[in-house]
Amino acid sequence: MPDQPRPHLEHDFMGLAFRQAEAAGARDEVPIGALLVDSATGQVLAADHNRVEELHDPTAHAEMLVIRAVATGRKEKRLPLCDLYVTLEPCPMCATAISFARIRRLIYAARDPKGGGIEHGPRIFQQPTCHHRPELFGGLDETRSATLLKTFFQSKR
Fold this sequence. Notes:
This protein is of the alpha/beta class. It is 35% helix and 18% strand. It has helices spanning 13-26, 52-55, 62-74, 92-101, 142-155; strands spanning 33-38, 44-49, 82-88, 105-110, 135-138. It has a 5-stranded mixed beta sheet with strand order 2-1-3-4-5. Helix 4 (92-101) links the parallel strand 3 (82-88) and strand 4 (105-110). Helix 3 packs parallel to helix 4. The longest helix has 14 residues, at 13-26. It is globular and about 40 Å long. It starts with 12 loop residues before the first helix and ends with a helix. The relative contact order is 0.17.
């Protein structure tokens, strides 16, 4: 998918997602951050980062945490008026959750050839069994995300 123009929004939501990713790295979590935003008002509904290590939960990815927070808080399983900003291409698990939640728009920074589920791997949204495909914007601030991830993993070696 070629780079697409950034959706016009009043705030730098991807910048806020990067703050979450940096907080994750500081907590020794893989530095991935996510934000769920009300597409009508621009209000940030939830912001979080990976908490897999902290919660001892392999599903505690940033995307899953923000979707759960908003869906649970609203008591709604579908979030069709929400946009998701995340610093890395979602994995297949998160991509499936995004589809099930009926997220309107997905905006992500770095592509993930190894573990991604949108442009790489199973390409969840391209499957004939996928019932909802969000509007996609990939590769935004890709260099920043890739640098953050590389620095984190180099520090682990």
